[in-house]
Design a protein that fits this description.
Elements: H1 2-26, E1 32-36, E2 45-53, E3 62-69, E4 75-80, E5 89-91, E6 97-101, E7 109-110, E8 113-116, E9 125-130, E10 135-145, E11 155-165, E12 168-178
Length: 179
């Protein structure tokens, strides 16, 4: 008897989770959300990522990464190019991938989805001098990698980048969740 009750509770819980996602989507809520990683201790800046817009027929989802220098003394920060965030590929469940691009070509949309082939050749660095309160940002469009089986597969995709200040190396990133 207990086993049936347990199995019924598990089934109800799983069904409720699935229905919860369906209900969120049917109310017009975004399939996309962002969870920021904590900023590393002793890193003299704040970092945050946020969703600017959802996917439409005219453009893919858009995100923005903001950097604000919070140190007391002016310092030079080295970013991977383009700063302040340059990691443009994230793997998700079942080998699916997402790609960040500056601006998608209209030809990137086919079969009802925004598709990308990641470019290579990055690896440049940029050095910027910041005083307290100085800011930088970058905006990206999110596309489905051409090797993915479906358009914007559900799951969590972790993007992470490195920052270099006064001989120290710091990592920060965010998770893009797709329901």
């Amino acid at each position: 008897m207990r086993r049936r009750a347990l199995l019924g509770a598990v089934g109800t819980s799983v069904t409720a989770g699935c229905l919860g996602d369906v209900l969120h989507l049917s109310r017009g809520e975004s399939r996309f959300s962002i969870e920021n990683d904590p900023v590393p201790a002793d890193f003299p800046a704040t970092l945050s990522a946020r969703l600017l817009s959802d996917e439409t027929a005219a453009h893919p989802p858009r995100i923005r990464i903001d950097f604000e220098y919070t140190g007391d003394e002016p310092r030079t920060v080295r970013f991977n190019y383009p700063g302040p965030f340059a990691d443009t590929l994230a793997a998700g469940p079942d080998g699916s991938k997402l790609v960040l691009e500056y601006e998608a070509e209209t030809s990137s949309r086919h079969d009802g989805c925004w598709w990308a082939t990641p470019s290579t050749g990055r690896g440049a660095a940029e050095h910027r001098r910041f005083s307290s309160g100085d800011e930088a940002h970058v905006e990206w469009e999110v596309l489905t990698h051409e090797e993915s089986d479906t358009c914007y597969p559900s799951g969590r995709y972790h993007f992470v980048d490195r920052y270099y200040v006064d001989g120290g190396t710091y990592e920060w990133g965010f998770q893009l969740r797709i329901r």
